[in-house]
Design a protein that fits this description.
Elements lengths: L2 E9 L9 H8 L1 E7 L6 H14 L3 E4 L10 H11 L7 H11 L13 H10 L2 H8 L4 E4 L7 E4 L16 H8 L6 E4 L5 E6 L2 E6 L12 E9 L2 E9 L4 H8 L8 H12 L4 H10 L7 H10 L16
Parallel strand pairs: 2-3, 5-6, 6-8
Antiparallel strand pairs: 1-10, 2-9, 4-5, 7-8, 9-10
Bound molecules: fe (ii) ion (2 copies).
The site of one fe (ii) ion has 5 residues, from loops.
């Protein structure tokens, strides 16, 4: 079943003049825009969303960054996205790939075994043409349709690619994160958690993640905007799919037994919860080598009772 949650609305700034034929025409129009983000190399999730899009039949699909990395099928996901010809906004994971490609990632840690899955995407999976394509992606996409409030998509926030906008932020923090956007509606990604908040004069949304949600809900998630009568409304869609297919794809990767970042990504998918940063702190606190299965197992045991969608605090993971 495809669940849905109604979101808020923002009215267009339309001058109160007598309705012209054009205005009447615009009022009658309905447009639907699907916003997909954080696909993260999860091909079964993307395939399920494609099937849902067939049913929903939006007028346009836009991808708001992080098509690659974390999941086991980055190249396949990028192939799908490129073949669809959808506009794509640059995410921090596209940025990682390009940093590896040009060799300016001078942090030796980036070349450690732990991060091998991310490095392999940049160095072996993606073609030179793919990398060139990533280089051309814009940092933002603006939807400016007649009779509807303008919408800006950015992967993080107006402050940066990795500056995600989430439910834990106060109104003031959210206002600051979108202050520089000229548009009344701003849609982010990156946090892998849906968001729907009216702050000041703005409507701030986050689409959630297709491939690696962190809100405790394992479905492939995306946002559907519907523009009608001069206003947008939002529907957060949750699409079921078989995660066993992703685990099988990971098992076909040689690095699954040698690069523990992949084990943590797998745990994130299983629990629909963010773990990577907490795992790294956990290892530091306990003096554990982060790239061993024993450390991963100890972390999984320590966080076994953490509520899905709520990242473990270090005290919980101790
Ligand atoms: Fe991101
Ligand atoms: Fe992401």
């Amino acid at each position: 079943m495809h669940g849905a949650r109604a979101g808020g609305e923002v009215a267009a700034q339309i001058a109160p003049i007598s309705m012209s034929a054009l205005a009447l025409f615009t009022e009658a129009l309905m447009t639907r825009i699907a916003i997909l983000a954080d696909i993260h190399g999860n091909l079964p999730a993307l395939t399920a969303v494609l099937a849902d899009l067939d049913h929903v039949a939006p007028d346009q699909v836009i991808v708001n960054g992080d098509v690659i990395n974390r999941g086991p099928q980055s190249r396949e996901c990028l192939d799908v996205v490129r073949s669809m010809g959808w506009p794509v906004v640059y995410g921090n994971h596209e940025d990682y790939a390009l940093k590896y490609d040009v060799g300016i990632d001078d942090d030796p840690d980036s070349y450690s075994d732990f991060w091998l899955p991310i490095r392999l995407v940049a160095e072996q999976e993606l073609s030179a043409d793919d990398l060139e394509y990533l280089r051309t992606l814009p940092r933002a996409y603006v939807l400016d349709l007649p009779g509807l409030p303008a919408v800006r998509l950015v992967h993080g926030s107006m402050r940066g690619l990795s500056d995600g906008m989430g439910f834990w932020m106060s109104d003031e923090e959210l206002i600051n994160a979108v202050r520089d956007a000229p548009e009344p509606v701003v849609i982010g990604a990156h946090t892998h958690r849906p968001l729907d908040r009216h702050v000041g004069t703005r409507w701030v949304l986050n689409s959630g993640a297709v491939g690696m949600p962190y809100n405790g809900d394992p479905h492939a998630q995306y946002l559907l905007l519907e523009g009608r009568g001069g206003a947008w409304s939002a529907e957060f869609r949750q699409v079921p799919y078989d995660r066993a297919e992703v685990y099988a794809a990971w098992d076909r990767c040689e690095y699954i037994t040698t690069a523990m970042s992949a084990q943590i990504f797998k745990y994130e998918l299983e629990t629909a919860t963010f773990h990577l940063g907490i795992y790294l702190k956990f290892c530091k606190r306990h003096g554990l080598e982060r790239n061993t299965m024993a450390s991963v197992e100890r972390y999984r045991y320590a966080t076994r009772d953490v509520k899905p969608g709520r990242s473990a605090s270090l005290s919980q993971a101790s």
